[in-house]
Design goal:
heterotrimer; A alpha/beta (152); B mainly alpha (261); C alpha/beta (283); A: 152 residues; alpha/beta; 2 domains; elongated; C: 283 residues; 4-stranded antiparallel beta sheet; binds adenosine-5'-diphosphate; binds magnesium ion
Chain lengths: 152, 261, 283
C-alpha cells in the first residue's frame, strides 16, 4: 500500500512536469502546434524597420490580426521586406491600406500597425502594401531636432 | 619556510585532484555500470519520490512568491515608462532564463542534495554499503545510480514547475491586483518568449544543474568520513559546493547561450 | 611462509584442507602498520577464531579477506584465487560464497527484518516468494527472532539487530561465514544460543566459519583453530588445547580470560615487543 502511494505521487509529479512544459510552450512562448489554418500572406517594404523582429504582432486598431513571418533585405531596392501572415478571417484589408511600425509604450516591443484606407478592393494572398511608414528611430529624431536648432 | 608552504600547496593540489578523480570514478562506475532495468525501476521511482515529490512543496511555494515579487517590482519600475504591459515579458524571460533553473537548483541543493549526502554518509557509517558489497551487490548500482538518475530527471521537471508557478504568481499580482489588461500581459509575453531560445535553454540549464548538484551530493556522501562529524561536514560541503557550482556554471551557460560569444 | 611454525606439526591439527590462505601480507593505514608480514591458513569446514584486543585489526582482516581492502603486499588466496588481484566483477562473484556478520549489524535501515534477510536471496536466486518466505522464517527461527519478522531495524535492540544480521549472513548458505564479534552485546541466553548455532551450522552445512572475537571462553568452546593477533603479528596459534598449554604470559592472560585483552596490551610498544619475543611464539 505504501509503495502504491509512492508510485502514484511520482506519477502525478511527472505529469505535473509535463503539464508545465506544455504550458510553457503554448501559453508562455505562444508556440502553436499548427499554424493558424488558412492564413494568407502580405508583404510590405520599409526603409527602416528599427527593432522589429520575427513573430512580432500585426494589428489593426490595436487588435492583433496576424504576425511577422520573416524579414529580409531586398537587394535591389535596399529596403527591408517584411512577410506577414494574416489570419484568414481578416479578409477585408483594403488595397490602399498603409502599414507602419509602431512601438507599444515608450520602450516596448515594436509591431506593425495597419491603417485601413477607403478602397473597395481588398488585399489577397501575396499582395504588397505599398504605403508604408518606417519605424521611429530615436537617434534620427534627436538628430533632426538638433539640426533644426542649429539652422535657426 | 617557503618550501613548507609550497609543499602544502602541492599537497592540497594533489589531494584535490585525487578527490576529483574519485568523484569522476563514482560517476563513471554508476552510470556505465547501469543496473538492469527490472531492478532499476522500483529503486528509481522511490528516489524520484524522495528527491522530486518531496521537493515539490518548497519549489511551488518559492516559485509563487518569487513570481509575485517579480510582478510587483516589474510593475512599479515599468509603470514609470508607461510600459507596464511589458511586465509579463519581463517576468517570463527572467524566470525562464535565470531564476527558475538557478533558484530551483539552489533549493534542490538544500533540500534534496543535503538529504542525499546525509543518507549515503549514514549508510557508509553504519556499514550498510560495506554490507551490500559483501552480499555481492554493487553499491554504485544499487545506491548511487538510482539517486543520480532521479536527480537528473527531477531537476528539469521542478524547474519548469517553478517557472509556471512563478509566471502564474506574477499574473495574479499584475493582472488581478494591479489591473494590467490580461490580454496584454499574455500577448506581450508570448511575443517576447521564444520556445527554443528561452524555454529550451532554461531547461538545458536545469538539466546541467541537476547533474552537478546530484553528483556533488552523492560524491560527498560516498566519500565522507564515516562519523557523525564527518557526515555533518559533508552535508555542509554539499550545500556550499553545489550552490557555488550552480552559480558559476550559470554564468558560463548564460554567456554561451545568450552572450553572442 | 607459515608452514615452518612449530605448532603446525601436531597430528590433531586440521590444517590439511585449506580454504583461505594469507601469505606474507602487510597492510598499513596512514603510517601505522596494521599487519606486518603475517601468514595464516584457514581450514575448510572448521571454525577458526581470530582473537586479539580491540584495535589490533581483526575487523580489518575480515575486510581484507572479503576484498573490501587491498593489502600493500602479499597474497590472500581463496581456493587458489588471489583476492586482491581480482577485478570488481570477479570479486562480486567470489563474494557470493561469503557471508559476513558486521560488527554493527549493518542492517538496511529502509527495509524491515524480513526484507533484510530476504535481500541476498532475492538478489542471487530466482526463488519464488513462497520459498523465500519459508527460508527467511527458518533462519529467523534459528536465531530466535521469528516474532520480530515485521519490525524495522530501528525497533531492534543492538543484540537483536546482530542476530538478525546473522540470519542475513547465513541466508544463502555461503561457503564461508565471517562473524565480526558475534557475542558482544548479547545476553547470556542469546550468547549460548549463538555459540550453539554457529557450531551447529558449521557441522550441519559444512560452512567454514571465521569468528573474530575477544570473548575467550565462548570462542575457545567452539573454535577448532585459533590465531591470536597483537600489534600486527600473530603471537600464537593452535587448537584450544594447545593454546591453553601455552605458557607465554600474554597468551595465558588471554586464554584464561583474565582482564579482557586491552589492558596488558596498552603498554608502550617496545616493552611489549621485547616481552613478546622473550615469551611464547618463537620458543
Ligand atoms: N577507515 C579507517 N581509517 C583509518 N584507520 C582505521 C580505519 N578503520 C580502522 N582503522 C584503524 O585500524 C585499526 C584496526 O581496526 P579494526 O580492524 O577495526 O580493529 P578491531 O576490529 O580489531 O577492533 C585501528 O587501530 C583503527 O584505528
Ligand atoms: Mg572490530
Amino acid at each position: 500500500m505504501r509503495i502504491r502511494t509512492v508510485e502514484i505521487s511520482v506519477g502525478i509529479f511527472m505529469l505535473l512536469g509535463f503539464v508545465a512544459l506544455i504550458l510553457l510552450a503554448l501559453n508562455v512562448s505562444g508556440l502553436t502546434l499548427k499554424p493558424k489554418a488558412g492564413g494568407y500572406t502580405l508583404y510590405a517594404s520599409f526603409e527602416n524597420i528599427g527593432g522589429l523582429t520575427q513573430r512580432a504582432k500585426v494589428s489593426m486598431s490595436g487588435v492583433q490580426i496576424g504576425e511577422v513571418r520573416s524579414i529580409r533585405l531586398d537587394p535591389q531596392m535596399l529596403m527591408a521586406e517584411v512577410e506577414m501572415s494574416i489570419f484568414a478571417d481578416v479578409d477585408f484589408i483594403s488595397a490602399d491600406s498603409s502599414a507602419m511600425i509602431l512601438t507599444s509604450g515608450l520602450l516596448g516591443q515594436q509591431y506593425i500597425g495597419i491603417v485601413p484606407g477607403g478602397d473597395m478592393d481588398v488585399l489577397g494572398d501575396g499582395d504588397f502594401i505599398f504605403n508604408t511608414q518606417s519605424a521611429l528611430v530615436l537617434e534620427d529624431l534627436v538628430g533632426k531636432f538638433l539640426m533644426n536648432q542649429v539652422s535657426e | 619556510m617557503i618550501l613548507d608552504n609550497i609543499q602544502r600547496l602541492g599537497h592540497r593540489t594533489l589531494s584535490k585532484c585525487a578527490a576529483f578523480g574519485r568523484s569522476g570514478q563514482i560517476l563513471f562506475q554508476s552510470i556505465v555500470a547501469r543496473p538492469a532495468p527490472m531492478m532499476m525501476l522500483p529503486l528509481l521511482i522511490k528516489q524520484i519520490y524522495f528527491i522530486g515529490v518531496l521537493s515539490l512543496v518548497i519549489i511551488v511555494v518559492s516559485g509563487a512568491f518569487i513570481g509575485m515579487v517579480l510582478g510587483l517590482q516589474g510593475y512599479t519600475i515599468l509603470v514609470d515608462y508607461g510600459s507596464e504591459q511589458a511586465v509579463g515579458q519581463m517576468v517570463a524571460l527572467s524566470l525562464l532564463r535565470e531564476l527558475a533553473p538557478v533558484v530551483t537548483a539552489l533549493l534542490f541543493a538544500g533540500r534534496a542534495g543535503s538529504a542525499l549526502t546525509a543518507e549515503i554518509g549514514l549508510m557508509k557509517a553504519t556499514e550498510q554499503l560495506a554490507s551490500l558489497e559483501m552480499i555481492g551487490v554493487d553499491p554504485y548500482r544499487r545506491i548511487i545510480a538510482p539517486r543520480l538518475y532521479a536527480g537528473f530527471i527531477c531537476m528539469p521537471l521542478l524547474s519548469m514547475i517553478f517557472a509556471v508557478v512563478g509566471i502564474w504568481g506574477a499574473a495574479v499580482v499584475a493582472v488581478d491586483w494591479l489591473g494590467i489588461y490580461s490580454g496584454a500581459y499574455w500577448a506581450n509575453m508570448q511575443q517576447a518568449v521564444d520556445f527554443r531560445e528561452d524555454v529550451i535553454n532554461g531547461l538545458i540549464k536545469a538539466v546541467v544543474f541537476g547533474f552537478i548538484v546530484t553528483w556533488i551530493a552523492v560524491y560527498q556522501g560516498y566519500d565522507c568520513v564515516p562519523t557523525s562529524e564527518g557526515i555533518s561536514q559533508a552535508t555542509t560541503r554539499t550545500v556550499v559546493y553545489a550552490s557555488l557550482a550552480v552559480l558559476g556554471f550559470d554564468f558560463v551557460l548564460t554567456a554561451l547561450m545568450f552572450g553572442d560569444l | 611462509m607459515g608452514q615452518d611454525k612449530p605448532v603446525v606439526d601436531g597430528k590433531a591439527l586440521p590444517l590439511d584442507d585449506i580454504i583461505v590462505e594469507i601469505r606474507n601480507m602487510t597492510f598499513t593505514r596512514g603510517s601505522r602498520k596494521i599487519f606486518d608480514d603475517i601468514s595464516l591458513k584457514i581450514p575448510r569446514g572448521k571454525v577458526t577464531a581470530i582473537m586479539g584486543p580491540s584495535g589490533t585489526g581483526k575487523t580489518t582482516l575480515l575486510k581484507l579477506i572479503g576484498g573490501q581492502l587491498r593489502p600493500d603486499t602479499g597474497e590472500i588466496l581463496l581456493d587458489g584465487q588471489n583476492i586482491p588481484k581480482l577485478n570488481r566483477k570477479d570479486l562480486f562473484i567470489v563474494r557470493e560464497r561469503m557471508g559476513m556478520l558486521f560488527q554493527s549489524g549493518a542492517l538496511f535501515t529502509d527495509m524491515n527484518v524480513f526484507d533484510n534477510i530476504a535481500f541476498p536471496i532475492r538478489v542471487h536466486t530466482e526463488l519464488p516468494e513462497v520459498m523465500i518466505r519459508d527460508i527467511v522464517l527458518m533462519k529467523l527461527q534459528a536465531v530466535g527472532l521469528r516474532g520480530a519478522v515485521s519490525l524495522m531495524p530501528s525497533e531492534l535492540s543492538g543484540g537483536m539487530a546482530r542476530r538478525v544480521a546473522l540470519a542475513r549472513a547465513i541466508s544463502l548458505d555461503p561457503d564461508i561465514v565471517m562473524y565480526d564479534e558475534p557475542f558482544t552485546g548479547q545476553d547470556p541466553i542469546a550468547m549460548g544460543v549463538l555459540v550453539n548455532l554457529i557450531k551447529r551450522l558449521n557441522q550441519a552445512l559444512g560452512h567454514t566459519s571465521i569468528i573474530v572475537s575477544h570473548d575467550i571462553q565462548e570462542t575457545l568452546s567452539i573454535a577448532d583453530y585459533i590465531y591470536v593477533l597483537s600489534d600486527g603479528k600473530i603471537i600464537a596459534e593452535g587448537t584450544p588445547e594447545m593454546l591453553k598449554q601455552q605458557d607465554s604470559e600474554q597468551v595465558r592472560q588471554f586464554v584464561d580470560g583474565l582482564p579482557d585483552g586491552p589492558v596488558p596490551f596498552h603498554y608502550p610498544a617496545p616493552d611489549l615487543l621485547d616481552e613478546l619475543m622473550a615469551g611464547g611464539v618463537f620458543k
